[in-house]
Amino acid sequence: MNITEAMEARHAVRDFADQPIDAAALDELRAAVAAANAEGGLNIRLVHDETDAFGGCPTHYGRFRNVRWCLALIGRDAAAGDTADLDERAGYFGERLALTAVSLGLDTGWAVLHDVAEHDDFWHLEDGERMPAAIAFGHATRPGRPHRSKPVEELGAVEGGGTLADAPAWFVSALEAAQLAPSALGKQPFRFTLLADGQTVRAEALDGVQSEIGLGIAKLHMELGAAAAGHTIVW
């Protein structure tokens, strides 16, 4: 399974089994974390704990069980050479790691944790760092289920009042990939507009819970969907 196929296969889970993770898969995931940190100006940590990889931190939404592994998405609000918001970068690169994990046969679940600065035994936040979210991963006790998605007509538009029927196939393919993007409470608070030049896409976070994280996730899905149609998105 490649990372694009993983978009279709990925469904959020919160209940994990005790089944160990293959060492080769962990090595690939560690390499992907290193690449995400270098490219995104982040300090993502891969955390393992035999009791609770969330370090006892309460979750913003949903009850997780038996989380032994997680990705702590840590970074600074200003990264050298990158103007993207930390939450957006955490969403983009975190989802890239989640899809990598799925492509390796693992299951994942996004979580926003509270009181993260109080658990230095699991991760350490340097001055100026924060942790917008975490991703639990491992083997699920049961398969996840597809989440609800907005219609493509609500996710995307064409500048100047055109319809998606007039849009190029790659833009529709990108929006269909964005439909698969996870978001807080399944609200998908983001919108993409194809500008008049027919190449540039404007990405907007709408009002909603963790909308900037959701925007980052959806931008990755848009890029993967467009790439599957032979196009590279210009933001």
From TrEMBL:
Taxonomic superkingdom: Bacteria
Pfam families per the record? TM1586_NiRdase (PF14512)
Recorded hits in InterPro entries, A to Z, give: TM1586_NiRdase
Start and end of every Putative nitroreductase TM1586 domain? Answer: 2-226
Identification of the protein by name: Nitroreductase
